[in-house]
């Protein structure tokens, strides 16, 4: 059995960095280093006082130390790691772009009053959960030892549990919306039309390559049609075959 340090060092880079940042932000808040109002997403202060850091810092707060915080952190450690080590293996730039695209989508959604929430960390976690559920739709998930269901339905089950336990609906729902938008643009729409509108920007690829983040992407001579061909199993839900390594 590996030690906690060995487990931590075995985590893929993007998931490890995000999970660590969330833990450090919450620890700093609990120690009184800053007040939540200083990192919350408040658009009036972003545009009138140029406090642009709020567009970033709000994603790193998952709530005070609590059971809910632990569950969110475990979701990052499980679903983020399985995505980055599975469908996104050796595709660190694509995984990073997925999170950036999701964050940008949530910032746009949160500008609508009905969706606004001061912290979007939970939304980003739910986006990871949703994309994971589409990549591994037939995995069997046991929820608190009470019910077993397919992973495809897990985001909705977790949203329902959050509502039952008194958590707000909109952060979870925004994450699901952003996750579906990303999956639609990168998997469902290309499969249906053969055209890809959302691609990882070269700037992100250069950034990952410049700092040698993660393993280098494999070279391949496969055609676009080969990459977009559906997998022979679970084709009802699964996307591009090269994204599935389980």
Structure description:
The chain is mostly helical and 246 residues long. It is 56% helix and 3% strand. It has helices at residues 4-10, 13-30, 43-48, 54-57, 67-85, 92-110, 121-135, 154-164, 169-193, 202-210, 224-228, and strands at residues 140-143, 147-150. The chain has a two-stranded antiparallel ribbon. Helix 6 (92-110) crosses helix 7 and helix 6 (92-110) crosses helix 9 (169-193). The longest helix has 25 residues, at 169-193. The protein starts with a helix and ends in an 18-residue tail after the last helix. Residues 220-246 have low confidence and may be disordered.
Structural class, by secondary structure, is: mainly alpha
Largest sheet: 2 strands, antiparallel
Can you count the beta strands?
Answer: 2
Number of helices: 11
Mean pLDDT reading: 88
Assign an overall shape.
Answer: globular
